[in-house]
Amino acid sequence: MPSRIVSFNLNGREVEVMVKPMTTLQDVLRKQLGFSATKSGCKQGSCGSCTVLVNGEPMVACLLPVEDIAGEAVTTLEGITPMGEALHPLQEVFAEGYAAQCGYCTPGMILTTKALLDHNPSPTREEIAEAIAGNYCRCTGYKAILDAIEAAAEQGG
Questions:
Q1: Residue 19, Cβ neighbours under 10 Å: how many?
Q2: CA angle 54, 103, 12 (to 5 degrees)
Q3: Whole-angstrom Cα distance, residue 14 to residue 123?
Q4: How far apart are CA 116 and CA 132, in angstroms?
Q5: Strands lying side by side in the sheet with 57-60
Q6: Three-state secondary structure of 92-127
Q7: CB–CB of 107/38 below 8 Å?
Q8: What is the pTM of this model?
Q9: What is the pLDDT of residues 67-115, one digit of tens each?
Q10: 75, 111 Cβ separation under 8 angstroms
Q11: What SS3 class is residue 69?
């Protein structure tokens, strides 16, 4: 099948990319557009390190054909910080709470957390744990992450 142009909104800007069929959003973000916060982990949809927001919902970019998001709004970690600010409040609370050790899972964790807090500003610890269940972390043991997310909720997300 021939390559085609796919258009979508990325972090508030319209983009067009030329892709072959079944090219993943992860590959487009990292290889074509240079958005490195979307990590490449398992490539099987199991680890969550490639999580992005599509229309505000967390999705794993490694399994998502880019043609499936034509016309949709995609947000990466690079897109959540207002212009002129160094860090998003979620990034700050993760750093302050030592919830980002090696940092590999952090972009996916933060975007999943953003989606959770956008839908539920006062989640219980159990709701937080359920929300991040698709994001695998090998470093923190999750306590610091759960604590950071609770702190973010208390601060208003």
A1: 18
A2: 30
A3: 33
A4: 9
A5: 13-19, 4-10, 73-75, 51-54, 57-60
A6: HHHHHCCCCCCCCCHHHHHHHHHHHHHHCCCCCHHH
A7: yes
A8: 0.94
A9: 999 999 999 999 998 766 789 999 999 999 999 889 899 999 999 999 9
A10: yes
A11: helix
